Amino acid sequence: MMLQRPSADSSGPGFTPLVVVELASDTKEEAIAWLLSRIRDQQHNGGAELLVEQLGPGVEGQEKENPNMFVVGASWQRLLSGAEDVGLFKEFSDGSMRGFTCANKHNFKDFKGDGDDFLSMAECQYIIKHELDTLRAKDETHVPGYTQVKLYPGKSIIRRLQSKGILIQFFPLHEKEELKRLSFSWYKKMKLSFQPLDDIRHYYGEGQALYFGFLEYFTIALVPMALIGVPYYLFDWEDYDKYVVFAVFNLIWCTVILELWKRCSASLAYSWGTLSRKKAFEEPRPGFHGVLGFNPVTGREEPLYPNAKRQLRIYLVSLPFVLLCLYLSLYVMMIYFQMEGWALSVYDEEPTFWTGILLFIPSIIYAVVIEIMNLIYRYAAEFLTEWENHRLESSYQNHLVLKVLVFNFFNCFASLFYIAFVMQDMVLLRQVSLATLLITSQILNQFMEAFLPYWLQRRRNKKMIHKVRKRRTLEDKELPLAEQVRLEAEMSTYLGTFDDYLELFLLFGYVSLFSCVYPLAAVLVVLNNVTEVYSDAFKMCHVFKRPFSDPAANIGVWQLAFEAMSVIAVVTNFALIGMSPQVKAYFPESETQLILWTVAIEHGLLAFKFILTFLIPDVPKHIQIKLAHLEFESLEALKKKVK
Amino acid sequence: MMLQRPSADSSGPGFTPLVVVELASDTKEEAIAWLLSRIRDQQHNGGAELLVEQLGPGVEGQEKENPNMFVVGASWQRLLSGAEDVGLFKEFSDGSMRGFTCANKHNFKDFKGDGDDFLSMAECQYIIKHELDTLRAKDETHVPGYTQVKLYPGKSIIRRLQSKGILIQFFPLHEKEELKRLSFSWYKKMKLSFQPLDDIRHYYGEGQALYFGFLEYFTIALVPMALIGVPYYLFDWEDYDKYVVFAVFNLIWCTVILELWKRCSASLAYSWGTLSRKKAFEEPRPGFHGVLGFNPVTGREEPLYPNAKRQLRIYLVSLPFVLLCLYLSLYVMMIYFQMEGWALSVYDEEPTFWTGILLFIPSIIYAVVIEIMNLIYRYAAEFLTEWENHRLESSYQNHLVLKVLVFNFFNCFASLFYIAFVMQDMVLLRQVSLATLLITSQILNQFMEAFLPYWLQRRRNKKMIHKVRKRRTLEDKELPLAEQVRLEAEMSTYLGTFDDYLELFLLFGYVSLFSCVYPLAAVLVVLNNVTEVYSDAFKMCHVFKRPFSDPAANIGVWQLAFEAMSVIAVVTNFALIGMSPQVKAYFPESETQLILWTVAIEHGLLAFKFILTFLIPDVPKHIQIKLAHLEFESLEALKKKVK
């Protein structure tokens, strides 16, 4: 980490600021004093032993400005011991990845001198987040000044303040220089190249880097599909029955790429040291509430919420709600088909250019409505999952993903399935619905995701620079720290990779389910992904606050979601094959025979798919050997210690 | 462990004999002396630090008798430190299961005084096996006296002697008193009760106990099936189309019982301390050969065999061989159908009692032929898998199980599938084939498995007692140690639970695949299992050498095999449902509609089955909490050590 001290700005603190903590502007003095003392207190007194300072007033010093902004940092020694606490893996002198310990810090490859550029800034920020999160109440019964904000021994102070609204946010600071360099290598140079995944990981952490890695992998994996798709589209446009070969290709493609991704992901995670990193015990999420009791695992006092009650909420409220939403979505779909029918009848009566365009209108409206419904449902799902009161963030995420996935899948693909299998109208499916839905949703997504937030951010940015300009003439373009912090505090908060993965999931669905009917889908998705890389990179660098890095070892629940989609794709593709006139020609007299054969082969292929998944090892051989070697060494070391 | 010193027999060693090592009778003196000194040598000199003594001559002292029999034991201190080496889990004073360490031995629940009855005899024998197995060559280049038996530093001495035929066998001794008590509580008392799983585990180890636990679980799980089956059989005998309800029940049954078994198995393994026990690094199996090189994981010198070569052998030789065998089995099946047709034509010409019996003859012959083919194939599969030269015992086992399972499944069920789905002749399936196949194979199995070995053993036993009687009058019936050892050395070697699980697997197949057609299957299997418990228990106690205990945490690859069978069962049952006249009546005009609906519902159910598998946690909640608690404690301990 090569961080310059923020220029010649006298209002800055006496240490490198890493993380910003923003308290509510009306926070009572005694609470602030107490919090700061707990953060500064030494570790053997139960403090976090971090450095913290209040931020000086902004240039304007307006009344609107929140005075309770604090920057947090730490000494190098503290950060190194924190790295050991969080179980950071670093490259050892023999090239393997090992858990960092202060005791043999000099055996790690990049540890030089005092080790003051051993940790990246993202790692330092992650360590500070961890130390703040695990700063626990001692014998306080409540937060000083707030008798209603109860505490009990062992409760995470930060989480309590957060859930009570006293702590508004805490976020890591951007590094202007690093960011400039990263954004240049990432998206500013115009020639097509691989993404700088290691740099992304260095700046944003492993979770982000894995997302961009997956996006890149998925795009490259789509290229053969796209290449095969173009001639199909160009030469067989009116020949709807040549898609058998394409469907078979599709089938194999979606199984193989997901298996290979697991190996890619394991390689990346190994080289970043997250593959074999042990998960720390998860604390209850900030919003979790319940009756105080003793956690049977840790023996600590913490709120407990009976699992049976949660199950009741899930099965008696959430599940019926999801089903109701699916029904609504079905209803909207039916309205769409009526509109479609009406547009077709208008076109049939008077086939002009304008009525020809009218044919596409229902699909476009439907696509917009789908996006709006997805958005509203998203909020409802978040509310419901919050209300289910999950103890762990991971369990909350899983339930949220499940709810959102089911609805989005249904909302986006139900109409296509209906057209394909109930109406069996391949022309409508191909020309009108698929193309329009896909293109419209892509355009909407790009707009909602990047341009809108960018435009909002730009306005805010300009206002701030304008304000600063008013007060003093800026020789260099750099803002003073106080302004920089306030500017970043007002940036939107990046809400994680959820929406990005969701979008990829739906695109994967379009390609794997229906690209044999509409071969251009892969081409469109490739184009979308290329712009997606740029817009995602751009929004990460310029629109959002820097997120805390997230030491992920894989893409988590999304791997499962993509695999489920690939199973559905096998079934769908086989149904499409069974319906093709080409195949039907083989069984001229008996439709029963045709279906039985299709089903039999489909079962065989599904079985083959599962066997393939089982046979391809999830972790490449050379990494397996390295992991086994480390484990063997630790076993041997244990044996020696015993004797 | 409460072992009396073997009576007043002066030829016994000065310690409790645990394990017998038998060397070839023509082993050179210097090799024996070297081996004994290595076994006795102290640990810091690289020895095993065990006690070993040559067995005195038998009563007759015939020339035929092998003089090179040794009994091995150890001091209590050595056994306790060995228990730590093998990572034994024992009950701690707070009721949790923890890895035993000598340092805090007094905190373990059953540790009293010196701890001389802390370990069971089976555990002691397992420890001795481990210590012998890991007795490694130092700087010897070959076994003294045998220049062709090469050694290199780190090579397991015992395994090399074993693979070169110098070491004939090593096996643990039975405990007469224990065995008497166990066999009484297990199968001698006539009232029906649960098996004494803890006692079985105490005497035979976890692998055996899990097999008997599974056998018991499976039998109990079958009881509802059997109860429903009997009225079906009694009242609907001629009404072949009432099986839809039964098929649906079947479907749910086989999914649920396998999921619940996982939980049962986890509970058992936790209470026996094998659930969270870490696996030690696997040594190459004795038969493994290759060019000397360095193992990339351990860094030790050991034979290496290129994986590519093994893959070639698997895909170019083993796979075609298996396919050929399947083809052969198909051919035999066709001959069976011809015989069946011939018998039917004879019966039709002249329907008497004798020609009525003739109807069953082809099925009986076919069942016998199937058993013989399975047996021959079993040997071929063992030979082939040996030849594939797998490095690890576990990988060898997996490949063997896969080969044997595929063939056995095909051999036993192909004819039934053919009758059900190609000939669609439910009467033949039910009355002739299923019943005859099932009953004949059960009778054959019981005979081959228990009565034949018992009869052989009895003859041997009598001869030995006769011999002893000739020499001296026996007041008490106990044999002197030397005779006892020689008697046990001649008992058959128990080859593991493979064949027992295989038999259960095929029975599970009969029940889950076809019991809706032949509801009595469950009843027959329950009866078979009850006798199986007795005959298995009997053969374990009286026919076989005591096996080394095997610290298994679950039933391993068999869980997977049973789950695969249950998926096949879902598909089969749905096909049977689709073919039933009852269901066909709902779709009088269109067969296509019928098939499409059946397939759609089947897909839905398969999906539901997978979701169910996913939702039911494999480990019961209270054990999850205990495991998490231990892990949390070790993490906290690590943190404290650091600070």
Automatic annotation (TrEMBL), chains A, B:
Membrane protein topology class: Multi-pass membrane protein
Keywords: Membrane, Transmembrane, Transmembrane helix
InterPro entries: Anoctamin, Anoctamin_TM
MF term (GO), any: chloride channel activity
One term under GO cellular component: plasma membrane
Record flagged with keyword Amino-acid biosynthesis: no
Subcellular location: Membrane
Pfam family, one: Anoctamin
Protein name: Anoctamin
Lineage of the species this protein comes from: Eukaryota, Metazoa, Chordata, Craniata, Vertebrata
Gene giving rise to this polypeptide: ANO10
